[in-house]
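Amino Acid Chain and Its Fold in Token Form
===========================================
Structure side: the spatial fold of the chain, written down as a series of whole-number tokens.
Position: the record begins directly beneath this header, with no further notes in between.
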Amino acid sequence: MKLHLKGGRVIDPATRTDDVRDVYIAEGKIAGLGAPPAGFTADRTVDVTGLAVMPGLVDLGARRVTVASEAAAALAGGVTRVVCPPDTDPVLDEPDLVEMLQLRARATQHAQVHPLGALTVGLAGRDLSEMAQLTQAGCIGLSQANAPMADNRTLLRALQYAGTFGLTVWLRAQDAALAAGGVAASGAVASRLGLAGIPVAAETIALHTILELVRVTGTRVHLCRLSSGAGLALVRAAKAEGLPVTCDVAAHHLHLIDMDIGYFDAHYRLDPPLRAQRDREAIRDAARDGTIDAICSDHTPLAADARLVPFAEALPGASGLELLLSLVLKWADESRVPLVDALARVTHAPAQRLTRVAPGAGRLAPGQPADVCVFAPAAYWTVDARRLRSAGHNTPFLGYELPGRVRLTLVGGHVAHEALAD
């Protein structure tokens, strides 16, 4: 289908474009911006006056995205590319399993799924996986997800091996021993509620180790889901030093703090845990100045009964695909971040992690795939479990009024989600 998006506010963080332009789409790609290409005749013209037209969101952390409900949730949130961690069932530690996941993803014709391969066999942290074969099968990098390594010697070997193939290793910075048994951030709130705490040191000690091994090996490392001001200070210094590291945070850490747990509300049981207000402000500052490369959903849908247990017994995680754009818009408004800069954290910047397999992702440019999100910046919506597409309604933002309604999502020029009359 040849598609004409007429009169929208085009926002492309890759080129810092922010103005009113028409967008022309043909054969699954952007055919023109502003003026139609020669001989272009649209099969459909959509008037998007008053709406914003941006690249589809790139989410660096979401689970179960090949399930129909979660794929629909991604599209409803304007997400067109998703990085899937390897802690699936079964674990993505064999090429055949990676190829099977990609086949399932392609069959749905939904968001593009980019898997991470397991860094170690079974994510057990001991025996290294066949990294090169996993990459050839389609993995964009290697990860332990949330599973710990057996020891630092194994981690060093893993980084050395990955480095010989020019691969990126995705790591959670968390010392397993210091975090063991913890369910909330160490501090006054956890103490008052009688909850076992996870200290900031669990993140910073792991970061010191990872960064030192990066110095030794020169291997590229992406740090997943940082949560503390102290940890971000270490990353900022490492980047200034020139180390090949990037990082992301979960969108809920831009807004929530440990006080929000209230009286044992299990919706706030997250991993990493919500920390103090000063950590949240440090996260917001780091997202603004570019220390944080990407903001992701950390989408972890859970069954309804997963929240009907005491806080300390609840599984951690939040459903976030449908909220990602809105939470970024809320942060941009509250922190007075220009919209083009805020949206870079969910489009162009995370897409840089995909350049080997999708060099044109996260941008609107002629000749590039027409992965597009059209949204109403000024339209507010209330987070209601009954209206979420995800099968997981486990979000701490239930009842919140958030900005930004996604009206149209295109994947490869195909209209994958439409709510223009909603």
Summary: The first helix runs from residue 68 to 76. The two ends are 23 Å apart (CA to CA).
